[in-house]
Write a structure and sequence with these properties.
Elements: H1 8-14, H2 17-37, E1 45-50, H3 69-72, E2 77-79, E3 86-88, H4 92-96, E4 101-107, H5 114-123, H6 140-147, E5 158-160, E6 185-187, H7 216-231, H8 233-236, H9 239-248, H10 251-257, H11 264-270, H12 274-288, E7 292-296, H13 323-347, E8 354-359, E9 363-364, E10 369-372, E11 379-382, E12 385-386, E13 390-396, E14 403-405, E15 407-408, E16 415-417, H14 422-433, E17 440-442, E18 448-450
Parallel strand pairs: 1-7, 1-8, 4-14, 5-6, 5-7
Antiparallel strand pairs: 2-3, 4-13, 8-13, 9-12, 10-11, 15-16, 17-18
Length: 462
């Protein structure tokens, strides 16, 4: 391919690091302008742990021990480090650090399908249609990537998922009318595997082949940097575009992706499965400058293939899994990974600047249902989709911790006190990032669209 063929338009179409760099150039200009007027601003960021399929609140953050057996399920609550905050027995490591997070137990919205709920939660807006996963409004990560008002230049918007065949629309994280240059950079596959590498770092598919071993990660970055220089793209870019390219091909970025540089004891603390290593990778990328890291936790990684009575993600219908067997298998991996990440952020002094949000798109039905499992062929318990009330965890961000905000009723069916919406979480996150929710972007019709038309920062956390 000749140099003249590597055009800006072609780079934008690839969805590769190069396209992100053009988007980052505008972000860098805004940050430089802010630093010129206020050099003392804090560097802040967000890690979102996305539990696709929906977290069953009764099996985790909102147990109901006094409810009838057809609601409460198999597990009993345990006391935590904070008096009055009880958690599922499956979360002992959470319980030991409950003073370092807050639980939101009264989240609610009206979308019972995965697609509508994904869009509702990940954009903070009412979707035009409840069907389909393609956003009609940009995901929060794309907005942060475009309009980050302060802090050092980020490496890249980031999404970590295990499925090699996925894309940003699978989780409704698309950039919609902001344009593809603000789509998240996908880091796919299982970072706990020895042969894992970042599969889409190539500037163009025909330039750099997918590399197989971890050691070749450094070579991959060097090849990309060489191709950029050779084609003259760097020469044609202005100072901020050059800075963006340099960030995306820098030693700092490539070191962040190389988990072998992390101390083995730290890796073991997170857990050597995909949940733990994805969470650790997010922390490393945040340290390298990423402003918004989304970790998609689906399959815990063991056993492979999974047992017949469990399901790939958190969608614990009876047709998919035995809800209690699935929780016994899945939740301990989750408990270890999330607790290790919270502890790591605090121990490293990152708890003021990094806001951690842990949520799925909804909860699951308080009343247990029974149906024949697709894989087991026997009748088993499960829980269906339930947006009526669900729970989330927030930690860090300089927010108040060691508390529960809101509550559900005795059966875990609906909010009892302090109903909250996904918009309230994002209003809190935007405040942490220094982004005004009143800012507007033109949609495809040219109409100005506010970043967040409703929702308020959660006052109990401030």
């Amino acid at each position: 391919m000749s140099s003249s063929q590597v055009t800006r338009r072609r780079l934008l179409q690839t969805g590769s690091l190069a396209s992100l760099a053009f988007g980052n150039a505008q972000l860098l200009r805004a940050r430089a302008a802010t630093r010129a007027t206020n050099p003392a601003v804090r560097d802040t960021s967000v890690i979102l742990i996305w539990l696709t399929g929906g977290l069953s609140h009764i099996e985790t953050y909102d147990p109901k021990p006094n409810a009838p057996s057809e609601y409460r399920g198999d597990f009993h609550p345990i006391a935590s480090k904070v008096p009055g905050i009880n958690l599922s027995q499956l979360l002992p490591q959470h319980a030991a650090i409950a003073d370092r997070f807050s639980l939101l137990r009264s989240l609610t919205h009206g979308y019972a399908g995965h697609d509508g709920a994904h869009k509702r939660v990940l954009t903070g807006r009412i979707p035009k249609t409840p069907t389909g996963f393609v956003n009609d409004a940009p995901g929060v990560g794309s907005i942060v990537g475009k309009l980050r008002e302060h802090g050092p230049p980020g490496v890249l918007p980031f999404t970590s998922g295990q499925r090699a065949d996925t894309n940003v629309d699978a989780y409704s994280q698309g950039s919609a009318y902001l344009g593809k240059s603000y789509a998240p950079f996908l880091v796919l596959g299982d970072p706990s595997k020895q042969d894992w590498s970042v599969p889409n770092l190539a500037i163009l598919p025909e330039v750099t082949p997918r590399l197989r071993d971890r050691r070749s990660l450094l070579v991959q970055f060097d090849q990309m940097r060489h191709q950029l220089d050779h084609t003259g793209v760097m020469d044609a870019s202005d100072r901020f575009q050059e800075q963006a390219f340099s960030l995306l091909t820098s030693d700092r970025a490539r070191r962040a992706f190389d988990l072998t540089q992390e101390d083995d004891a730290v890796r073991q603390r997170y857990g050597m499965g995909p949940y733990g290593q994805q969470a650790l990778l997010a922390r490393r990328l945040i340290e390298a400058g990423t402003s918004f890291a989304n970790v998609v936790m689906e399959h815990p990684g063991t056993p492979t293939p999974p047992a017949r009575n469990v399901v790939y993600n958190w969608d614990c219908h009876a047709v998919n899994c035995h809800v209690f067997d699935d929780a016994r298998w899945r939740v301990p991996h989750f408990d270890q990974a999330v607790s290790a990440l919270i502890t790591d952020l605090y121990d490293r002094g990152m708890d003021r600047d990094v806001l951690l949000i842990v949520t799925g798109e909804f909860g699951h039905t308080p009343r247990i249902s029974y149906q024949k499992g697709t894989n087991t062929k026997i009748t088993q318990p499960g829980r269906d989709h339930w947006p009526g009330v669900y729970s989330a965890l927030v930690s860090g961000g300089g927010l108040r911790t060691g508390q529960v905000v809101g509550s559900s009723n005795q059966l875990g069916e609906r909010p009892h006190e302090r109903p909250l919406s996904p918009d309230d979480i994002w209003a809190t996150a935007y405040r942490h990032l220094g982004i005004s929710t009143d800012h507007t972007f033109p949609n495809l019709s040219g109409r100005p669209m506010p970043i967040l038309p409703q929702g308020q920062p959660i006052r109990e956390l401030l």
